[in-house]
Request: fold
Amino acid sequence: MKMRSLYINYETLRRNDSALIVRNGNHQVKYLVNGRWGNQLGKITVNSLYGDELLAINQLTAGKIQRFEITCDHHQISTFRRVLNNYDHPLYLKKLHWLIWGNQRQLKYRAFELHRPVMKTQITPTVPKLLEIKVNRQADEPIVCGVIALLNYWALLDEQLLNPDLTKLFRQNHQNELA
Reply:
């Protein structure tokens, strides 16, 4: 089965803009991904081109072990958790039975549902650089886009912990969100 390709501008992704535009192989806008982080509990939404909310990832708890839920049409479709300071740790999405792992510094991930491939990512060598997301089923695209945005956010936070100069830059770029 051929995987569908979606693309996010790499520079936009690494700047951690509050809105990401996801395009298909024909450069048409497919999804808008919005995030609100820096507050105690964050939220990512994936919207259609027409503004309909297709998916939300809500942070349920803060602290050393963070819990999240994924909702679609206000119904929970999965939950997962992240242990802080556990870089490159696989992520398991309950109910969906997805296992996601990869290298967050290179934004290279793979996901499987049991033995079925769900998605894989890679940075394209083109100019401008793009994050290519290959998704097996169209119905999984909004979930994958939301999870990629969250993994990118975590990767940027982890880079700050490893490089204090980035912390200053991150705070300057996100003053409004942290206030």
